[in-house]
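Hi there, hope your week has been kind to you so far. Do you reckon you could talk me through the fold, stretch by stretch? Thanks so much in advance, here it is.
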Amino acid sequence: NLLREWVPDRSKLANLLNNQLSVQSSENKVQNFRSQHPIMTTDGGVIISSGEGVLLKLDEGSNIEWFIDRHFHHAIEPGLMEGQFISQIIVDKDVKLPNGKVLQPLRNDGYVIFSGDGKIIEERSFAQILLDNGYSGLLLGSKWQKDRIHLNDAEYIFETDEYVKKGDIMMSSRHLSTVLLYRPSENKVIWLKQGPFLNQHDVNYLGNGVFSIL
């Protein structure tokens, strides 16, 4: 049986998408809005993205409670702290090579931490993380495309063991066929694996140093 559904009012959604957003995206059009990657909140609401664009929260009555006018995409997962979440975003910063030059053109995918009231807390570029950790060959060493990374998952480690620490972040880059474990407190890639999987979409930690990859 259907227990609950959240359906934004079409006219109010259209007003938001047509008149209140600066981010240009085909998904930020009411006819294309798909309410992707929902995650429920403790107050009965739900946070969704358009797939490639605005992030917004619907309250328990499907009213638009808040929105963030940035380019979000893919999974929305629980944050490390209560009332926080982690997702993917196009970072509004240039990626700099070790010689100081800016890397362009590049869709600068990264992870973002945001609060349950719609405030961005932190965002970091996946490409910059690779460069900072000596993985320039992985990022630059094959045929170039603007959507070079296509970050499609970022999830926290919630318990420390002998292999991982609470607060580490697992990430999945589809177009690099790469998953990694990142420690934000040290700006350090702890573990990285490219293939033999191809264009994977999700990474999870099963414990005892074992990861599952979808």
Observations:
- The two ends are 29 Å apart (CA to CA).
- The mean pLDDT is 95.
- The longest strand covers residues 64-78.
- The CA atoms of residues 88 and 111 lie 4 Å apart.
